[in-house]
Design brief:
By secondary structure, the chain is an alpha/beta fold. It is built from 12 helices and 12 strands. It is globular, with a radius of gyration of 19 Å.
């Protein structure tokens, strides 16, 4: 029987249930923050912790507050995951794939044990800005071997990943990121698990990514292209990706109110993009999630958190004409199919 590894052991397909396939319980994206300002007032903001009191300012400058893209609060994660569970949530995939990205295996296992929600940990390498000079020069073979070691031997005393992750900061022209992609593609061919790729979110150039993965033997039926909501208007392009057998993920639900061009699309627009792909017959290639990766997105700091999909998005999908069968397919069956091998 096919299964996927969670931080507390293997899960069969029918154990996954309602799944968020792309979230971050713990993450460190401070590599995207600008350098500390010289101006004293700006520097004070830069160093200031995010609170409910300064939230309205952080919303307008989400990367200028260095505390915002850093999630390490165990209590917050426990509360968020428990809230998701009360609404029928069963499984969360944490896509913080490395120490450089803030992955915390011990905390992930604690969350799973204390909440009873399945947590799937990822392994791989993130984008160029997150890598040290040494990491940027690692060979493809070394990267692959390190990833395989995590799957075969676990990390932090025997905690095993269940999904792979690779990332591009922009165009697919940076050699360290290409090496990462080839390494995770080779690892996928050996392990058989799902592979999530953070592509160039502004340009329709993911076919090149898929060509590289095919070249190293990766099974495209296990590939998830993240953040495709940013290209939701390019209906024919997204259709062409689905026709290659990959999954396209609309995974920034719940963040359209943040004043940054990365998150300006509303949930209603994203549901519209989903509907277009369903109308083209691509319902078996669709995934949805929230990619909660900033403090502002979580309930403790005034956001909606992991409950958004079951509490708001699924009812909105029903109101938009999605059948219960298609909603179940997108939120339960598709994640189980791509994760379990």
């Amino acid at each position: 029987m096919s299964s996927v590894m969670s931080v507390t052991g293997p899960l069969a397909k029918d154990e996954l249930g309602l799944t968020l396939p792309h979230e971050h319980l713990f993450v460190d994206l401070r590599c995207y923050c600008p350098v500390e300002p010289r101006d004293e007032n700006q520097r004070n903001n830069y160093r200031q912790p995010v609170t409910l009191q300064n939230r309205s300012k952080v919303v307008n400058q989400p990367w200028e507050y260095r505390d915002n893209p850093f999630l390490d609060d165990l209590e917050s994660s426990l509360n968020e995951v428990l809230a998701f569970k009360t609404l029928g949530g069963t499984t969360i995939a944490d896509l913080s794939c490395s120490l450089a990205m803030g992955r915390d295996p011990q905390k992930l296992r604690l969350v799973a044990e204390r909440t009873g929600v399945n947590i799937i940990m990822s392994s791989g390498r993130y984008t160029l800005p997150s890598l040290t000079e040494t990491e940027r020069n690692l060979s493809e073979a070394f990267i692959e071997a390190r990833i395989l070691d995590e799957f075969y031997n676990g990390v932090d005393g025997g905690i095993y990943p269940g999904i792979l992750k690779a990332g591009f900061v922009g165009e697919t022209d940076k050699e360290p990121e290409i090496r990462t992609l080839r390494a995770v593609g080779r690892a996928q061919a050996k392990i058989g698990c799902a592979l999530a790729v953070h592509p160039h979110i502004w340009q329709p150039d993911s076919h090149r990514i898929l060509d590289i993965l095919e070249d190293v033997g990766c099974d495209l039926r296990r590939v998830i292209l993240c953040h495709q909501d940013f290209l939701g208007l390019q209906t024919a392009y997204l259709d062409s990706l689905c026709k290659r057998g990959v999954y396209i993920e609309f995974d920034t639900f719940g963040s359209g109110w943040i004043n940054d061009r990365m998150w300006q699309l509303t949930d209603e627009q994203k549901i519209g993009f989903l509907k277009q792909q369903v109308d083209l017959g691509n319902q078996e290639q669709l995934l949805i999630s929230g990619d909660m990766c900033l403090k502002l997105m979580l309930k403790k700091w005034g956001g909606v958190g992991y409950v958004n999909i079951p509490k708001f998005v699924i009812p909105a999908m029903k109101a938009a004409g999605f059948s219960s069968e298609v909603i179940h397919l997108i939120t339960v069956e598709n994640p189980a199919r791509v994760f379990c091998h």
